[in-house]
Amino acid sequence: MTESREHDAGSPGPSDDTLEEVARKLLLEIGEDPRRDGLVRTPQRFARALRFLTSGYAQDVETALNGAIFDEKSDEMVIVRDIDFHSLCEHHLLPFYGKGHIAYIPNGKIIGLSKLPRLLDVFARRLQVQERLTQQVAACIEEVTRPLGVAVVLEGIHLCMTMRGVEKQNAWATTSAMLGVFRHDRGTRAEFMNLLNRKPWS
Questions:
Q1: CA–CA distance from 120 to each of 16, 23, 180 (Å)?
Q2: Which residues are catalytic?
Q3: Which residues, 6+ apart, have CB-to-CB distance to 14 below 8 Å?
Q4: pLDDT the model gives residue 66
């Protein structure tokens, strides 16, 4: 199954000891003392945190789906919106985070609703750019269900823009991937966007 990944999850990566040593060197390079009370355990925490934040490399789509693809004749739009996601920008190793909205129109198969956020996590917990993350999620859903169409919209805040560089605290980045009828049918695409703009329960 295609996952558009740059790393082989089956290959051994750096050990936590190696990551801890990297953290110690970083602390020294910025002028800190890794032996002082507040920093003694920071390398261990750094290693655990980075391992978790990049845990998507060790995950695969089949495990995330856990067999939750079902035969179903429904051909109505399915949307899961406002999915929280967190990722790391591959250019600066700083976080970006926000909301994801995923829709698809079944063509004989449906995915368990809870699996859509899990798929987003599989790809988000890697070094990423938001544009590629959006495309990967859409391509994955298209591959595993062969639906009539898939739409993915991600809205993110990037700390590489808010904490450094242009320092624009309120700048959101929006990316979209439209496949199948969402790309070719204006009415379907408009329905999806209108549903996103509605408040829940309205």
A1: 26, 28, 20
A2: 89-92, 130, 158, 160
A3: 22
A4: 87
pLDDT tens for each residue of 123-162: 999 999 999 999 999 999 999 999 999 999 999 999 988 8
Task: Give the C-alpha separation, 173 to 166, whole Å.
Answer: 14
Which residue from 77, 70, 62 is spatially nearest to 111, judged by alpha carbons? Answer: 70
Quick one: tokens of 57? 């490399």
In sequence order, which residues have a C-beta less than 8 Å from that of residue 126 and are 6 or more positions away? 5, 7, 54, 56, 57, 87, 88
Instruction: Extract long-range pairs of 32-39: CB within 8 Å, 24+ residues apart.
Output: none
Distance CA 57, CA 42 (A): 23
pLDDT digits over 53-105, tens only? 999 999 999 989 988 999 999 889 999 999 999 999 999 999 999 999 999 99
Closest CA to 77 of 154, 150, 144: 150
